[in-house]
Amino acid sequence: MTDYCLARLTGQADISIIEPSVGDGAFLSSISNSIHLPNFNNVNITIVEKNEKEINKALQIPLNQNIHLQSYNEDYLEFHFRDNNRYSLYLGNPPYVKKTLLDDEHKNLAKLIHAEKLLSDKSINNIWTSFVVSGLTKLADNGMMALILPLELLQVKFTQEIRNLLKVEFQRMEIFTFNELQFQECKGQDTVLLIGYKQHENPGTFYTNISSLDDLQNGNYVFNRNTAVSDSDKKWTHHLITPEEYEFLESIKSRLNLVSHHLNNKPGIVTAANKFFIVNKDIVEQFNLHNYIRPIVQKGFFVNGSISFNDNNFQNLVDGNKPAYLLDFNQMEDDQITDEINTYLTAGVEMDLPNGFKCKQRNKWYQVNNIAEVPAAFFFKRAHEYPKLIRNDANVLVTDSAYKIEMINGFELNNFIYSFYNSLTLAYAELEGRYYGGGVLELTPNEFRILPVPYTICDNFDEYERAFANKNSISEVLIQNNFAILNGSLGLSVEDINKIESIRQQLINKRQRN
Questions:
Q1: Residue 352 in contact with residue 407, Cβ under 8 Å?
Q2: What gap in Å lies between CA 510 and CA 239, rounded to an integer?
Q3: Helix, strand counts (H, E) of the chain
Q4: Chain segment 218-272, per-residue pLDDT in tens
Q5: Maximum distance among all alpha carbons in the chain?
Q6: CA pair distance 60, 382, nearest whole angstrom
Q7: What order do you get walking across the sheet with 263-267 strand by strand?
Q8: DSSP states of 189-200 as a string?
Q9: How far apart are CA 274 and CA 35, in angstroms?
Q10: Which stretch of DSSP H or E encloses residue 457?
């Protein structure tokens, strides 16, 4: 990163660099040892780090005589407001700390920094965004920014304002994505490298995917410019495929209706404390709760590899002593509270559940609301190998780990499930969703609703269901049914279908890599 940036700053006699979270000085050492350092008369570096032990390590690094160093052992969010300097280069690896873990002071500082660029509070979900926004205010007119950032910069809704701001602030952006997790200190966090230029003779948003660290160091990569993504509000995850692949998929998607055309989806049940409100058979017996339980599936991990969930599947959960019963006290009057139930509720009080946000909104903290509706099917918002869409043959409830599915008149559930499992729809699940450490894919309700579906009639669903349950992998299902679905509804050739599957595999491999 340092060599790359310094090479592009060559031509300036004097440069100034700021690293807002220097840690133990890895970037500082890299700058001092860069082959491009002799190209400058003076290199002024400012480092900021609130951890005294870490910054002391950085200060022990022997520096090139051309470097003039200023160090500040303080919180960068506070430093931001008293530093009026402008820099040639703002670089580093800012901290990743969720908003929920910040104290009120840091939340307020982050809010003020975002307000300087007229961003809403919704753009603050992690402290790294404040470092990005701050950097935009610190750059000289011809300055550069180079930061290691979480992949969520490209993926999630709360960063959309940040993405839009970056497009306005920088004439050129370069986004490096990686096939491998490059930065071990990021604790398994999938990262991207963002480089932004305030001025550039070749403007636009460019991306490249790095197969190996050697390719990055040797410059063995090619930048692509995806105008269709750059000039829209599309998530930058679409940069993970080439512009040609993206336009190919979009041309097919434009011919299809979306999930929302076929069904309505609602969030599952929010208990506010699953460990208390969802219990196994032993707890039911111990506290004599038989009259106040409803069957429920708590999470996708508990369902099988089929496309239906039946009474036998539910009984297997019960027999395995899994939490499979939701406590429904909505019809229980005060005079019906037995000593056993009172003992159980008292345990909830001792856990301070009545003071939890959701529980406080209820008439009685222990009465979970909105649990009457049993969905025809459910779609689990998180997945690993593939998204799980399950027909609810057991008439169970489902938690907010899934979305409740009800078909719109004119469309049949079996046909929709059959149509859903094709390479095009699943490729768009990868593009529209976001993923986390361990390769977990997540789709929000809106992201699920905008998936394209080539709705097709299934002639023998029972046979399809048996084959799905006995599959070795989802790829086996797609190989068996892609042609019938994608050729039958769209007339796609075998070549086009194979190309779609290749793109899906490419996205899967990126998400699931170690």
A1: no
A2: 12
A3: 24, 23
A4: 888 888 876 655 555 666 666 677 778 888 999 999 999 999 999 999 999 999 9
A5: 85
A6: 46
A7: 263-267, 402-407, 377-380, 389-392, 308-309
A8: --EEEEEEESS-
A9: 57
A10: none
3-state secondary structure of 140: strand
State residue 327's pLDDT score. 97
Question: Do residues 452 and 258 make contact, with C-beta atoms less than 8 angstroms apart?
Answer: yes
228 CB neighbour count, 10 Å cutoff: 13
Question: Which one, of 91, 106, 113, lies nearest residue 25 by Cα?
Answer: 91
pLDDT at 211: 77
| Helix, strand, coil percentages for the chain (3-state, nearest 5) | 45, 20, 35
Please tell me the total number of residues recorded for the chain in this structure.
514
Average pLDDT of every residue of the chain: 91
Chain centroid, CA 507 distance in Å: 14
Three-class secondary structure assignment of 298-330: CCHHHCCCCCEECHHHHHHHHHCCCCCEEECCC
DSSP 120: -
**Residue 188 per-residue DSSP state:** T
- For a pLDDT cut of 90, what percent of the chain falls above it? 73
H or E segment to which residue 422 belongs: none
Q: What is the pLDDT of residues 163-197, one digit of tens each?
A: 889 999 999 999 998 866 555 444 446 788 999 99
Structure tokens, 24 = 């133990």
C-beta separation of 419 from 453 below 8 A: yes
Q: How many CA atoms lie within 13 A of 293 on its CB side?
A: 21
User: Rounded CA gap, 252 and 506, in Å?
Assistant: 18
Q: Name the pTM for this structure.
A: 0.73
Q: Are strands 224-225 and 402-407 parallel, antiparallel or unpaired?
A: unpaired
Phi/psi of residue 135, nearest 5 degrees: -60, -35
Q: Are 185 and 218 in contact (CB under 8 A)?
A: no
**How many Å separate Cα 189 from the centre of its chain?**
11
Tens-digit pLDDT profile for residues 110-123: 999 999 999 887 76
pLDDT number for residue 185: 46
Residues 136-141: contacts with CB under 8 Å, at least 24 apart: 136/165, 136/166, 136/169, 137/80, 138/18, 138/83, 138/85, 138/86, 138/87, 138/90, 139/86, 139/87, 139/90, 139/198, 140/16, 140/86, 140/87, 140/88, 140/198, 141/86, 141/198, 141/199
205's CB contacts (< 8 A; 6+ apart) are 167, 172, 173, 175, 225, 226, 229, 230
Which residues contact residue 88 at a Cβ distance below 8 angstroms, ignoring those fewer than 6 apart?
Answer: 9, 12, 15, 16, 17, 140, 142, 143, 144
- Please work out, in degrees rounded to the nearest 5, the angle formed at the alpha carbon of residue 455 by the alpha carbons of 500 and 390: 90
| Beta-carbon contacts of residue 159 (< 8 Å; ≥ 6 apart) | 123, 125, 129, 152, 153
Q: Return the SS3 of 492.
A: coil
Alpha-carbon distance 90 to 200, whole Å? 16
Look up residue 321 and give its amino acid.
N
